[in-house]
Amino acid sequence: MKQSQLEQTVGNAQARALWLSTIAFTACFAVWTVFSIIGIRIKDELGLNETEFGLLVGLPILTGSLIRIVLGVWASRYGGRIVYTLTMLAAAGATFLLAYAHTYPQMLAAALGVGIAGGSFAVGVTYVSRFFPPEKQGTALGIFGAGNVGAAVTKFLAPFVLVAWGWQAVAEIWAFALAAMAIVFWFMTSEEPPLQQSAPKGFWAQFAPLKNLQVWRFSFYYFFAFGAFVALALWLPRYLIGVYGFDIATAGIVAAAFSIPGSIFRAYGGVLSDRVGARTVMYWTLGVSAAATLILSLPPSNIVIETISGGIPIHFAVGPVAFVGIVFVLGFFMSLGKAAVYKHVPTYYPHDVGAVGGLVGMIGGLGGFLLPITFGALNDITGIWSSCFMLLFLLAVGALIWMHVAIRRMERSRVPGPAPARASELEAGVTS
Predict the structure, then answer these.
(1) Where are the domains of the chain?
(2) N or C: which end of the chain has fewer CB within 10 A?
């Protein structure tokens, strides 16, 4: 009877840790991407160019990326529960103060504080992974990562709040919601189980695995799978308004067609990674993403084919219906890739989840910062809206080539060893 009660208690703690962490991450992500909507109104009010707009929407991503590695290590040392709660409270305070910014420099300073919300990912990965055995961590972390759907929450709701009460109201309401979530999380969760290891590692010792090229390869995958997802989540409303003439509410709703599959199917990506291997999932992710971004990168064109009887004009353009459909597919496969990358972290670095997960998340987040600025600069330089997808095509192909070359090198350099271990390594594709 006591054993049954103990198992039930452990199961309840696991469920609360997973689902409350996921809901909290959803709230954090909604705050983290709030500039994707309110930034459009701020751009008009301040008369910003495309590059300045890209910097404004990308700056929170920079903060959230850079602090991930530190927050992940702190979560490993001091406990994910307390670090998670304090992270949410700090981000809520900064978001509330955003409502009282008036100039562009003030907006940028506030954006840095709002970005603290993005650091919650590394904390949540560290916290959630402690509750689950390795064979279930892909699924658990996939469910947690589905909190990316917070970007869709902002796109669905923020336009209506903005139209009714102004962008300042969006900042205030989002801040209060995040603070409330922090309080709920603190009182309804428990401390994570301690790791079984001989002695606690020193602060700097936890960064030792970052010397491995393997970790940086994971990071590059995540730069595309997550960084490009965040960048597009921020950029698509502006893209849809500029290319197809949508109003802000319609653009937000349509952009959610990308954010939703790019978020909720991350849980399915975790299940697939557990079942068929992360390498297979990554091949599909990068291959389909390359094809999708290639199509989206083609700008509207007018071509005249000369025939015997004269010229035949042909017009090519990706219409709004086709665009939404392709973007949905792109978001779906990005969601699978995000889960596949993070399947590896607790499996191969179980005692360094905070540092390794923090670095991978940081590099991925940097993609969310750098890419919107680059998108804006490409627009200013080339005048071609689809230039953002040209860049994403190059990233997808580059990641696919690096992964394939690394896996082939691993296959050629295999050494004799237990067959199950070699099969597992080949399936995951993470040994080089």
Answers:
(1) 16-190+213-300+315-410+421-428
(2) N
- The SS3 of residue 386 is coil
Selection from 413, 345, 432, 371 nearest residue 124 by Cα: 345
Please give the pLDDT value at position 208: 60
Reduced to 3 states, what is the DSSP secondary structure of residue 143?
A: helix
Residue 124 and residue 88: Cα distance in Å, rounded? 11
* Lookup: tokens for 395: 């990233």
So what's the pLDDT on residue 272? 87
- Report the alpha-carbon distance of residue 100 to residue 406 in Å, rounded: 50
- Distance CA(307)–CA(298), nearest Å, equals 25
Q: How far from 161 is each of 100, 147, 154, 167, 174, CA to CA, in Å?
A: 17, 22, 10, 7, 11
Dist. CA 295–CA 289, nearest whole Å: 10
The CATH number of 16-190+213-300+315-410+421-428 is 1.20.1250.20
Residues of the chain with pLDDT under 70: 1-11, 195-211, 346-348, 351-355, 358, 414-432
User: How many CB atoms sit inside 10 A of residue 202's CB?
Assistant: 10
Q: Which residues pair with 314 in a beta bridge?
A: 303
What confidence score (pLDDT) does residue 253 get? Answer: 82
Give the position of tokens 């009714």. Answer: 164
